[in-house]
Amino acid sequence: MLGAVVLAAGLVGAALVYWTGSGTAVSSQPDEALPLLDSKVDSRALEENQGKAGLVMTRLREEMQQPGPLALVIAASATIVSLVCFRIADWVASGPGTPPGGRRPGDRETR
After folding, report:
1. Does residue 15 fall inside a structural domain?
2. Is residue 82 in some structural domain?
3. Which of 73, 109, 39 is nearest to 47 (CA)?
4. Model pLDDT, residue 48
5. pLDDT for 64
6. pTM across the whole model
C-alpha cells in the first residue's frame, strides 16, 4: 500500500512540476544572469578551483532549473522508492526466513 502511495504521489508531483514549470516563459532580457558555465574559460576556472565534482554539481544544478529534467528525477526517485517498498512488502508477506521472491532452495514449483 505504501509503495503505491509513494509511486502515485511521485508521478503526480513530477507531472505538476513539469506542467507548472513548462508554462513559464523564458525571457531573453539582456540583463538576466547568464549561466555559471557560459564559457570555456569559466568552466576551466571552476574545474581548477573546485575539481571535477564541483563542475558536475554546477552543471547538475543548472539542469535541475529546467522542469523536464527535474520532473524526470522526481519520477525516477518515486519509482525506485516504491519498488523498494514493494520488495520489502513481498519479503514481509512471505514470512521470516524466506528470501525475497518467496522460494527457498529445494522448494518445488507447483502448477
Report:
1. yes
2. yes
3. 39
4. 79
5. 82
6. 0.60
